[in-house]
């Protein structure tokens, strides 16, 4: 049992102000009542880096990646970067031995700039321009979901590119391109039998034996042991029926890895008529972060400055007041145009480090040309 496993077990056994099924595995409340993540009090982070601020728990993120590799040892884990991606995250994924899936040229550029091996990158293409496809070429795998992209991609290649696609019809079009190498299919977890049947049909029609099956995302609350067993059973039945060798199964978890790793902090700016307004945005589970709750509690709705609901009917102290710090599990996206994004601070082993700087009004206005 690892230290994080032990901490997780102890938190489940003890009464907590925070729900261990929702918050990062390192989250705890110190003797002063302050909510801490990665051994650092969120109030200290807000004081040092300002609020609103996003706190990214490295230990929690790595713990979830390792969980997939341990509980799904025969599957290939590829983290879905569109759910949360910074240079630090990309490096953690690579260091934990997982692949990285990207959906946009910006995500790909960030991954490469972070030092991720292009062979471990899976690029998803749908409604991509010629420039997008050119930038995505030379990654380990490309997943093509639109027929128009097949010829476009092939025209941009100087060497063969390995690809996956989602149907037998698109597979035939890929196989007609000399610069594309079809290696597998993409399907949902409950479509494994149909996908293996399609792979057998491709073998019989085209003489090509595919070796990979990408089943995409995994639900954040999925039981990985049950999932692994379900994959095995589906493969056993389908491969026996089609007399097809077992393909490598690739999973692309997103929120199942990153969902608890990011905690957003925002200060209360107003309390009135059951509404608590904070200087941030987003949605998620809310908790008081800067002190012990005092006296009675009451249900309130937490909203951002532009009125968007962050959490409806959450129980918070009745004496909540401006200046209190609230923490929200999950990202704090900019909910309105011309709203500067908060910084991202990574925490690990009682240390906090700025990973992504705060966006400023000057950054936003600097893009305006007239």
TrEMBL record:
GO molecular function, one term: diaminopimelate decarboxylase activity
Domain Orn/DAP/Arg decarboxylase 2 N-terminal: 60-159
Gene Ontology biological-process entries: lysine biosynthetic process via diaminopimelate
Pfam families on file: Orn_Arg_deC_N
Names of required cofactors: pyridoxal 5'-phosphate
Gene3D superfamilies: Alanine racemase, Lyase, Ornithine Decarboxylase, Chain A, domain 1
Domain of life assignment: Bacteria
Keyword annotations from UniProtKB, A to Z: Pyridoxal phosphate
InterPro entries named in the record: Ala_racemase/Decarboxylase_C, De-COase2_N, PLP-binding_barrel
Database matches in PANTHER family: DIAMINOPIMELATE DECARBOXYLASE, GROUP IV DECARBOXYLASE
UniProt name for this protein: Diaminopimelate decarboxylase
Organism: Mycolicibacterium canariasense (Mycobacterium canariasense)
């Amino acid at each position: 049992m690892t230290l994080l496993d032990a901490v997780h077990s102890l938190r489940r056994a003890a009464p907590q102000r925070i729900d261990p099924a929702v918050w990062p595995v390192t989250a705890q409340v110190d003797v002063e009542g302050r909510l801490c993540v990665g051994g650092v009090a969120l109030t200290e982070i807000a004081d040092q880096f300002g609020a609103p601020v996003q706190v990214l728990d490295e230990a929690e993120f790595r713990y979830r990646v390792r969980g997939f590799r341990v509980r799904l040892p025969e599957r290939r884990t590829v983290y879905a970067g569109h759910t949360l991606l910074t240079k630090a995250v990309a490096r953690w994924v690579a260091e934990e031995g997982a692949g990285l899936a990207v959906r946009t040229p910006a995500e790909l550029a960030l991954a490469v700039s972070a030092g991720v091996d292009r062979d471990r990158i899976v690029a998803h293409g749908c409604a991509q321009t010629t420039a997008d496809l050119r930038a995505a070429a030379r990654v380990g795998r490309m997943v093509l979901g639109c027929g128009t992209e097949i010829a476009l991609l092939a025209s941009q290649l100087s060497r063969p590119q390995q690809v996956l696609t989602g149907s037998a019809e698109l597979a035939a079009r890929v196989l007609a391109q000399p610069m594309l190498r079809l290696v597998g299919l993409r399907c949902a977890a409950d479509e494994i039998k149909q996908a293996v049947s399609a792979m057998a049909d491709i073998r019989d029609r085209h003489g090509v034996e595919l070796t990979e099956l990408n089943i995409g995302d995994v639900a954040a609350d999925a039981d990985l042991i049950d999932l692994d067993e379900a994959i095995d059973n589906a493969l056993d039945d389908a491969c026996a029926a089609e007399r097809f060798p077992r393909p490598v199964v690739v999973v692309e978890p997103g929120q199942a890895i990153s969902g608890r790793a990011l905690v957003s902090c925002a200060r209360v700016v107003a309390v009135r008529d059951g509404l608590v307004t904070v200087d941030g945005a987003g949605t998620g589970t809310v908790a008081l972060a800067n002190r012990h709750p005092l006296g009675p509690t009451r249900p309130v709705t937490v909203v951002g400055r532009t009125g968007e609901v962050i959490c409806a009917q959450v129980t918070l102290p009745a004496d909540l007041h401006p200046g209190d710090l609230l923490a929200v599990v999950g990202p704090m996206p900019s909910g309105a145009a011309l709203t500067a994004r908060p910084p991202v601070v990574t925490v690990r082993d009682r240390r906090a480090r700025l990973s992504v700087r705060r966006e400023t009004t000057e950054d936003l206005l600097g893009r305006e040309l007239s």
